[in-house]
Amino acid sequence: xxxxxxxxxxxxxxxxxxxxxxxxxxxxxxxxxxxxxxxxxxxxxxxxxxxxxxxxxxxxxxxxxxxxxxxxxxxxxxxxxxxxxxxxxxxxxxxxxxxxxxxxxxxxxxxxxxxxxxxxxxxxxxxxxxxxxxxxxxxxxxxxxxxxxxxxxxxxxxxxxxxxxxxxxxxxxxxxxxxxxxxxxxxxxxxxxxxxxxxxxxxxxxxxxxxxxxxxxxxxxxxxxxxxxxxxxxxxxxxxxxxxxxxxxxxxxxxxxxxxxxxxxxxxxxxxxxxxxxxxxxxxxxxxxxxxxxxxxxxxxxxxxxxxxxxxxxxxxxxxxxxxxxxxxxxxxxxxxxxxxxxxxxxxxxxxxxxxxxxxx
Length: 361
Known about the structure:
- By secondary structure, the chain is α/β, with parallel strands linked by helices.
- Helices cover 25% and strands 26% of the residues.
């Protein structure tokens, strides 16, 4: 039996309880978690913004050590340190054939199949986004366990599984930021902080961070922001003033709200790029006039998992971690226990802090 944070039903409080995991089957591995990041997507799964069968063990940003492997597993072995990949590509679908693994048609299938049971009543449990890392241990497909590059601390490596890959990819793959370009990042949470660091590594400047909380300024500047703007009615105007009156070359929206997306678009220069990373609900509708679409010539694009191929991108990101250019510790504002996840959800709702990291004994 292992301890886990179980979501009994959508919009129900998390319950910290024991669960029973099966032995890994063909193509599966069992992992003892070292750490798990508390991501806003987990909150969205818990409240129904994103679909997730329940009851479920949430958590999708994690790293740990392989303790057992099932038949036919050759990519990892017991004792290997790994990063969890919540969207493992199949390699065979139409999108994988286009070298777009972040759009894989089958990456989410694991979330729809029970993987464990509650210890108290044997109720079947589903794995949140296929990984279920809000638990001391988990069982996943071997395709979801990526070898941890050398020189990356295991606990901090949990952040690579979502925040860092997403922020890195938003800058380097989706927006394709070039040295000397101005970048504005909306939302200074875990993904926003990773995006700021990626923009700094890309040689962008100025780098403007925007958040509703003035308390986030020091955090944003530590990650690479050269300017900080407290969100308000004149946000786009203030960003244009900070970028030579033109607007930012690139705007990255990490919030997932219609008004923030609209502001990010308005803060982007003519011909610039607006990348939307934040995940909003179906009720969040964004409007543009046909004339402005023509006149401004901006590019508006969605961004799934940073448009990354984790197997390709993790080794590259690791080189920046080893050099000190990318500091994972600056993303973490709270190191917590499994029992503290509900409070971490409350903090996210209140717009407080960066990334909370569950560290397992």
